[in-house]
Specification:
This protein is of the alpha+beta class. It has one domain. It is about 30% helix and about 30% strand. The protein is built from four helices and six strands, in the order βββαβββααα. The chain has a three-stranded antiparallel β-sheet, with helices on one face. Strands 4-5-6 form a three-stranded antiparallel β-sheet. β5 and β6 form a beta hairpin. The longest helix is centred in the C-terminal third of the chain and has 19 residues. It is globular, with a radius of gyration of 18 Å. GO terms for molecular function: transcription coactivator activity. It is found in: Nucleus. This is Mediator of RNA polymerase II transcription subunit 20. Keywords: Activator, Nucleus, Transcription, Transcription regulation.
Length: about 160
């Protein structure tokens, strides 16, 4: 009789030995890669969303202290968008380097440079972690999913 909460299981090639479980409006759990096997064993408690796989695959570039990853976001067999991830490697406090990141992104993204991510607002002066990156990917994927929902037209 309880309404279910969504949990997204995510993987990142930068952290091949980790698995990330993001709960709807909640925390991000970081587990080892065998977490998927555990979820299969708990299938009586969790329902797998069929055909809901979304991923970003692309190329990783390094330019001096910046790491740039450009990927194609696919849902099933079709491309749905593009992801651009930029990291300034020497900095671990996200808010300390946001202006530098903006300036760097403007050199190749121009007017399409994003505004400050919501995860920065909650981090303040704390250390940025891989879970923060996964939260940002989840936000991107949810935006793409919502854009793909086509309103149903009524027939009279």
């Amino acid at each position: 009789g309880q309404t279910g909460k969504l949990m997204y299981v995510m993987h990142n090639s930068e952290y091949p030995l980790s698995c990330f479980a993001l709960f709807e409006n909640g925390p991000c759990l970081i587990a080892d890669a065998n977490f998927d096997i555990l979820m299969v064993k708990l299938k009586g408690f969790f329902q797998n969303a069929k055909a809901n796989k979304i991923e970003s695959r692309g190329t990783r570039y390094q330019y001096c202290d910046f790491l740039v990853k450009v990927g194609t976001v696919t849902m099933g067999p079709s491309a749905r968008g593009i992801s651009v991830e930029v990291e300034y490697c020497p900095c671990v406090i996200a808010n300390d380097c946001w202006n530098l990141l903006m300036e760097f992104m403007q050199t190749f993204m121009g007017n399409h440079t994003p505004s400050i991510p919501s995860v920065f607002g909650t981090k303040h002066d704390s250390i940025y972690s891989p879970a923060d990156t996964m939260v940002q990917y989840m936000e991107l994927f949810n935006k793409i999913r919502k854009q793909q929902q086509v309103p149903v037209a009524g027939i009279r």
